[in-house]
Write a structure and sequence with these properties.
alpha/beta, Transferase, Pyrimidine Nucleoside Phosphorylase, Chain A, domain 3, 4 domains, six-stranded mixed β-barrel, Pyrimidine Nucleoside Phosphorylase, Chain A, domain 2
Amino acid sequence: MQLKVQPIDIKVGKFKVVLNSSDAKELGVNAGDRVRIKDHTTVTAIVDFTEDMISPGMIGLYHEVQEQLRREWTEIVEVEPAEKPKSARIIRKVMDKQQLTKDEIYELVKDIVEENLTDIEISAFLTASYIHDMTEEETEWLTRAMVDSGERIQFDMHPIMDKHSIGGVPGNKITLLIVPIVAANGLLIPKTSSRAITGAGGTADLMQVLAPVEFTAAQIKDMTQKVGAVIVWGGATNIAPADDKLIKVEYPLSIDPHCQLLASIMAKKSAVGADKVVIDIPMGSGTKIPDMKTGRKLARDLISLGERLGMDVDCALTYGSSPVGRTIGPALEVREALTVLESMEGPNSLIEKSVGLAGMLLEMGGVAARGQGRDLALETLKNGKALAKLKEIIAIQGGDPNVTSKDIQIGEFSAQIKAPSNGYIIEFRNKRIVQIARLAGAPNDKGAGVYIHRKLGESVQQGEPVITIYAEKEAKLQAALKSARQDPPLIVEGMLIERVTDIREV
């Protein structure tokens, strides 16, 4: 069928076209099917329907298809039905709990990266993987396919160090301390980080307060070799692009298949050339990992996959039932981290977790003996070498190396939630704290967030502030404040919670 082109200047992230329902019916295609568009080149695209946006005899081409065809839009193109890609059948095998071959997994990842699959098809793959999981061999192939789908960084010097947190605990700003501690001791650590998806501030969001974070793989390599480290946004590179596309579909589904979690972490570590990796696994109420048993299993699986990929992996099971430090939100967290680097003044939870994980990396990198890494990390923090190294990292990424904690600007609008009575913080709800920070504008509004005055188990007097909410816009502050009052993130009680006087009450 010959159809006249109508450009649709919208990016949709896939090769997609829009047909009038009458033309689609004549072609014998349904929504989600593929058509082949022939011109001087050929493009296969996914079909959407419309009754009125596109007239009969025309085909609407989204931006990606236009770019692929590269021609003026006054011409006629030939349109015909196309078969579904091979990976659509491969997904059905996953749904039927059949093991995939290496070639099938590579074909699947290729189609994901090249946008040949619909979101429904990718959702089916993720859901089936969530239900049935994958074998160790399949997970290894999935990881390798993800690595091979994008750019890789290959360093001339070794070892290359890296760290990762699986997330789930707010205020986890430890990368701003760990990376300069490790680099200050002569090790290379090219830290590619993520932006927040459901949180109030990913590491890339925090670092952006201090310096630009978007660089190519070649630039990351060059900067790391010059100063020993970077803290950058991995999404600006073409490193393991399949992972980013899968995460985009995972988010609305609220699922994280075990095999995909493993592959996601290890693919990005492998792609940056990491030899030695420490993985932070926060555990506890409100985190992704509810208990020690689950945490140990994940650790074993990560270590095993690391061995298959030629990486030395150690895992740290860490306390995650309460935020790290007392701040949630990019600018607040950066200010807290800088204060520790400048003066060692700050929350013990932030200092201890940072030097503990940094110490593991120092031992794995061979610059500290077994059991002595923490002490070296702490000394590097105390003597100012970590701060000096962070300034080097900031400078090479294009930021102001002379910035101090006092220079970090937080939201001009603020409000406090105060304790309703004397007592103790008996419950701290991580997810609610994050929700309130996001309502205030974090992470997009860098100055928005929450300061925590009292944490779990700490005493408080009636009328004292338990949290302060900061925002850059007054309307967002009021929205966050209203939410915090309706559903408080902390519960204050006296040590006597309930009096029971009759067996019938129990």
